[in-house]
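Box 3.1 A note on notation
Throughout this textbook, protein chains are presented in two layers. The first layer is the amino acid sequence; the second is a token string describing backbone geometry. Keep the layers aligned when reading.
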Amino acid sequence: MSILRIGKVAINVLDLAEARRHYGEFLGLAETASAPGTAYFKGWDEYDHHSVILKENDRAGLDHVAFKVRFPDDLARIESTCERFGFPVQRVSAGSRIGEGEAVATTLPTGHRIEFYQQMERVGIAVGNTNPEPWPDDRRGVGVNRFDHVLLTGEDLEGVTRFFVEGLDFHQSERLINKEGGLLASFLHVTNKAHDIAFIKGPNGKLHHVGFYVETWDDVLRAADLQSRHRVRTELTPSRHGLTRGLTTYFFDPSGNRNETYAGGTFPHYDNDVVTWTEDEAARAIFFHGREMIPSFGSALT
């Protein structure tokens, strides 16, 4: 099977109007469509119709995350893989959401819904394909380039890692282990980004954060400036992760869903060794500059 990349995330929000302002005006995503209780967004450097779906709900958190595959036959192969691992499988009809083709959906042992799709309407990038400028002149707010990754929480990290690595041919780029060698965090990629999806030990079914890519350290600093200027609830001012080496700032949308602006990071290949961090170095792995755990990091989940 050929999984191209993480393609989209659907986020449950408490107030759609507030969420629209946050993801549209503050983060700078472009709204591409809407339906009752739902809004669709994309980054300026993304080709497909949308990468973020906001769904009004009485509970914040993750609705689903989805990966794009290369060939139509990949959906049947993934369906078989899910069944082999004993996971429930559901087909989502084309047109169930605006701009989307047929999808295969399953539920991970961590309780998260994950989907796979091959077709989505193409709308192109904001700067075009011929002699493009480095960025569009009408960038708003932070002006994030694209949706980058998700970090989820769950209890069975060994099981979910086995599914992605053995079943879907992902590579584990980095991990955090306890004294007994058990997984506390597992970072997984199908591209050569540091992670497309990652899991940390915690309650099943929870969203830790949604990461958005910006290009440089200066962009991370600018994001933090805008967080303060617009009174956005902030958890971590600009810093670096030891794990992935990414440049980062953490903040929250109005519903309490954690966001991250993320730049840099490693670019692992499939034949790289897995980078291992030990529990005694967990604070430095996550907060490389401060080297101390932030209490809300493990408790502010949606």
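The chain has a mean pLDDT of 96. Residues 217-229 form the longest helix (13 residues).
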